[in-house]
Amino acid sequence: MRIVMATIFSLFFIRSMAHADLLKRADKADIEMLLSAVSGTNSSYWASYIGNSRGRVYIQYESAVHSNSLFTDKMSHVIYWIPESELSAKQLTKFVEYKNKYEPEK
């Protein structure tokens, strides 16, 4: 079962990376920015919890405001990874709650 879940997560992650411009390790400032973006209150950027694997949490971040935004309508896509040990239970819960709140029903 564990191998199946790891495979599913890996396929989802690879699919997400196909749309990402960058894979980046989040620092404390990035974590605060992502927590703000995950709320969805600003329409020019947003973040979404992807999942966790092997002690890391993955968050997708998209922004319409970036260095090329004056020349293109394309969004900037970054996948941030955060060691689980650097997130409090409250922070992780916030990421997951917003994901569940805004994820379309199947």
What is the element layout, followed by pairings?
Layout: H1 2-17, E1 22-25, H2 28-37, E2 45-53, E3 56-63, E4 76-83, H3 89-102
Parallel strand pairs: 1-4
Antiparallel strand pairs: 2-3, 3-4
Given the helix and strand composition, which structural class is it? alpha+beta
Main β-sheet, spatial strand arrangement: 1-4-3-2
- The proportion of residues forming helix, as a percent range, comes to 25-40%
Run of helices and strands: HEHEEEH
Strand tally is 4
Number of helices: 3
Distance between the termini: 23 Å
Sum up the overall morphology in one term.
globular
Radius of gyration: 14 Å
Give start-end ranges of low-pLDDT stretches: 14-18
Strand content: 25-35%
Mean pLDDT: 75
Q: What can be said about the biggest beta sheet?
A: 4 strands, mixed
Summarize this, please?
The chain contains three helices and four strands; from the N terminus they run αβαβββα. The chain has a four-stranded mixed sheet with strand order 1-4-3-2, sandwiched between helices. It has helices spanning 2-17, 28-37, 89-102; strands at residues 22-25, 45-53, 56-63, 76-83.
What does this structure look like?
This protein has 106 residues and is of the alpha+beta class. It has a 4-stranded mixed sheet with strand order 1-4-3-2, sandwiched between helices. The chain is 38% helix and 27% strand. β2 and β3 form a beta hairpin. Residues 14-18 have low confidence and may be disordered.
